[in-house]
Amino acid sequence: MKAIEITDLTKFYHKKKAIEGVNLTVDEGELFGFIGPNGAGKSTTIKLLLNFIYASSGHATVLGKDIVKESAAIKKMVGYVPSEVRYYPQMTANDIIGFAAKFHQIDQATIQMKRYYEMFDIDPHKRFGDMSLGNKKKVAIVAGLITKPKLLILDEPTNGLDPLMQHHLFKEMTRQNKEDGMTIFLSSHNLREIQEYSSRAAFIRDGQIVALENIADKEMAGKVIVLKGNDLPVTALVNAGAKVVETTETTARLTFDGNVQTVLPILSADGIKDLSITNQELEDKFLTLYEGGKTK
């Protein structure tokens, strides 16, 4: 059974496309990254999976259950950390997290709550309306983690968190992933954290999945070629299959997914004063997909 299985999922707001024809699967026990710029369709996809909004067409299942017909059952098995955290302002952290634990019938909830309060430096008696952005996000994170969900969905979870809290979050997430088999669906702008923790990642652009990368070995397929000099052979490299990430009058940065031996003759051109060939990372893939061909 797949933790998430999406087939041709489409959402239009009147005539404006949010996502279209999205197909995606996430395995149980996987830590999966979901990448894209603002407005690409990440949050829309998540809201559709949780039945907060309805699809225009297509369908999906979460933990083997239909996202519309069995939404209530899904919510009992899923933890969710939204990008924008909203709770009743008069409720305290203890009220919010305690309610989540009670709803999911968590054993020894008081002990677990105390542990998380210490881990994330949360004042349990502070009212939500009086909290900073970072503290609000920490409350949402703990409300998601304490339920020990089969699937944890996080939408930009590190926004507002300082580095220490980010460290605690990923340490606890990976612990539950390894010890309890919790599936994690991580939507984030932070490419470093996705590359470090995820086994696979999908890129979404303009409401469509444009790439799916296996990054479990921490090394992306392909190479990054950086050139410095005058009269650089950019056109020849593009004709050989390279993709331009960025160029200036005296520099060029390209990605190449083929056998690098085939472009070595091109890289011997007289105009090249310096060059480097390195393994492609997630940031290089992101720049190729979203800023390919940018010239300064």
Give a description of the structure.
It comes from Listeria weihenstephanensis. The chain is of the alpha/beta class and 296 residues long. The protein has two domains: 2-214, Rossmann fold (3-Layer(aba) Sandwich), CATH 3.40.50.300; 223-295, Alpha-Beta Plaits. 31% of the residues lie in helices and 31% in strands. The chain has helices spanning 42-49, 71-77, 93-103, 109-119, 133-145, 163-180, 191-197, 234-239, 282-291, and strands at 2-13, 16-27, 31-35, 57-62, 65-66, 78-81, 151-155, 183-187, 200-205, 208-214, 223-229, 243-247, 251-256, 272-279, 294-295. The strands form three sheets. A six-stranded mixed β-sheet has the order 6-7-8-3-9-10, with helices on both faces. A hairpin with a 2-residue loop joins β4 and β5 (65-66). α3 runs parallel beside α5. The mean pLDDT is 91.
Topology:
Elements: E1 2-13, E2 16-27, E3 31-35, H1 42-49, E4 57-62, E5 65-66, H2 71-77, E6 78-81, H3 93-103, H4 109-119, H5 133-145, E7 151-155, H6 163-180, E8 183-187, H7 191-197, E9 200-205, E10 208-214, E11 223-229, H8 234-239, E12 243-247, E13 251-256, E14 272-279, H9 282-291, E15 294-295
Parallel strand pairs: 3-8, 3-9, 6-7, 7-8, 12-15
Antiparallel strand pairs: 1-2, 1-4, 4-5, 9-10, 11-13, 11-14, 12-13
Helix pairs in contact: 3-5
GO molecular function: ATP binding; ATP hydrolysis activity
Protein name: ABC transporter ATP-binding protein
Family: Belongs to the ABC transporter superfamily.
